[in-house]
Amino acid sequence: MPQRARILGERVYSPSTFAKLLRISKQELLDKEAKGLIPPAQRDSKGARYYRPEDVVKYRAYLGIPFPMKSVRKQLFLNFKGGTGKSSLSASYGFRLAQMGFRTLLIDLDPQGHLTQCLGLNSEAFPKTLFNSLVGKEDIENIIVKTDLPTLDIIPSNLNLSPIELSLFSMNSREFRLRRLLSTIEMNYEVIVMDASPSIGLLNLNAILASNDLLIPVLADFLSYHGLKILFETLSTIEEDFSFVFENIFIFLNRYNDSHRICRRSKKALETHYKKYLIRTVIRQDTKIAEATSLGTPIFLFAQSSKGAEDIQSLIDEIFGLKGNGHDG
Question: Which of 120, 183, 191, 248 is the most buried (most CB within 10 A)?
Answer without folding.
Answer: 191
